[in-house]
């Protein structure tokens, strides 16, 4: 361990993942700044971006190694980071923006550290996925982050088709260059009436959230294209025919630990059914007991 003063106490040994702002620089957490200040070795997906963030918040590099770790150099950079951990040094890794390992090269680094027996820690913070979910207006009780769709239309449509029946809010990242084509494929594979939201430049100056059906969002892009970082969210299917046996089984399971009102609400959300109908089914089940 180095002998610099540590205002926040001794940093636990191991690899520390920190989340960095997706836009506004002040969104970084105090704990992340502490870790950046105290770590022996600093690794980053983009060293220039992290160096600038440290300068904004007055965190000196102080002669410590600043290691670039990204998709193109992971095989070469990982051994250097693992050697530092083996020497008992503390290492911090930061994504270019957001939470490490979410559409980020940090996954292989984390796996390698775990397999080698080193402690791995996480300091939670900014996340485009959760930020978009919060402002979308779509159900947040269950969601699935699917990442970036394939680039070609045939592969993208096949890939999107797999998510059509998932009973959760779907979250995708997409390039502004391809988002119009992607929405067109979503309309074809998931249906034009499925509710959705398109979020761009979250926490930045030109932040915008568009809400509506997939068809409405597609038409909106034709009239007013978008630029910047894009997150697309799609609601679960609301009009599919639910299997009565599956609905009853889900309701019975929840009634073991929940009140009828709460159980009915969750099952109604899961299957896209009117809450009143599920509640009445619950009453009938209770009468049979």
How are the SSEs placed, and which strands pair?
Blueprint: E1 14-18, H1 30-38, E2 41-44, H2 47-56, E3 66-68, H3 74-86, E4 90-94, H4 106-115, E5 120-123, H5 128-136, E6 143-147, H6 153-161, E7 169-174, H7 179-190, E8 195-200, E9 208-213, H8 214-223, E10 230-234, H9 244-255, H10 260-271, H11 275-288
Parallel strand pairs: 1-4, 1-5, 2-3, 2-4, 6-7
Antiparallel strand pairs: 7-10, 8-9, 8-10
Helix pairs in contact: 3-4, 6-7, 7-8, 9-10, 9-11, 10-11
Subcellular location: Cytoplasm
Enzyme class: transferase
Domain RsmI HTH: 242-285
Verbal overview:
Helices cover 42% and strands 17% of the residues. It has eleven helices and ten strands. The strands form two sheets. Strands 3-2-4-1-5 form a five-stranded parallel beta sheet, sandwiched between helices. Strands 6-7-10-8-9 form a five-stranded mixed beta sheet. Helix 3 runs parallel beside helix 4 (106-115), helix 6 (153-161) crosses helix 7 (179-190) and helix 10 packs across helix 11 (275-288).
Write a short abstract of this structure.
This protein is of the alpha/beta class and 289 residues long.
CATH topology of the largest domain: Cobalt-precorrin-4 Transmethylase, domain 1
The CATH superfamily of the largest domain is known as: Tetrapyrrole methylase, N-terminal domain
Calculate Rg over CA atoms.
23 Å
Count the domains: 3
Rounded average pLDDT: 92
The neighbouring-strand order within the major sheet is 3-2-4-1-5
Q: What are the segments in which pLDDT stays under 50 over at least 5 consecutive residues?
A: 1-8
Subcellular location: Cytoplasm
Domain Tetrapyrrole methylase: 15-217
Catalytic activity: cytidine(1402) in 16S rRNA + S-adenosyl-L-methionine = 2'-O-methylcytidine(1402) in 16S rRNA + S-adenosyl-L-homocysteine + H(+)
GO cellular component, one term: cytoplasm
């Amino acid at each position: 361990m180095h002998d610099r003063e540590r205002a926040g106490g001794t940093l636990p040994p191991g690899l520390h993942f920190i989340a960095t702002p997706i836009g506004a620089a002040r969104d970084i957490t105090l704990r992340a700044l502490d870790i950046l200040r105290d770590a022996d070795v600093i690794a980053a997906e983009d060293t220039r971006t992290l160096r600038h963030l440290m300068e904004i918040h007055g965190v000196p590099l102080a002669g410590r190694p600043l290691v670039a770790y990204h998709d193109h150099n992971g095989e070469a950079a990982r051994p250097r980071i693992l050697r530092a951990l083996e020497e008992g040094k503390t290492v911090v890794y930061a994504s270019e923006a957001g939470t490490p390992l979410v559409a980020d090269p940090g996954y292989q680094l984390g796996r390698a550290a775990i397999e080698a027996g080193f402690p791995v820690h996480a300091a939670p913070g900014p996340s485009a996925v959760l930020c978009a979910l919060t402002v979308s207006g779509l159900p947040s009780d269950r969601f699935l982050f699917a990442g970036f769709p394939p680039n070609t239309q045939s592969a993208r449509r096949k890939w999107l088709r797999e998510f059509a029946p998932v009973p959760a809010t779907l979250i995708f990242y997409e390039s502004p260059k391809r988002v119009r084509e992607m929405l067109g494929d979503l309309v074809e594979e998931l249906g034009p009436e499925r509710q959705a939201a398109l979020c761009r430049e979250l926490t930045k100056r030109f932040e915008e959230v568009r809400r509506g059906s997939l068809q409405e969002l597609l038409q909106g892009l034709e009239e007013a294209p978008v630029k910047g970082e894009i997150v697309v969210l799609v609601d679960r299917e609301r009009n599919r025919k639910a299997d009565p046996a599956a609905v009853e089984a889900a309701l019975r399971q929840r009634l073991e630990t929940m009140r009828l009102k709460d159980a009915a609400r969750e099952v109604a959300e899961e299957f896209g059914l009117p809450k009143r109908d599920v509640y009445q089914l619950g009453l009938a089940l209770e009468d049979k007991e």
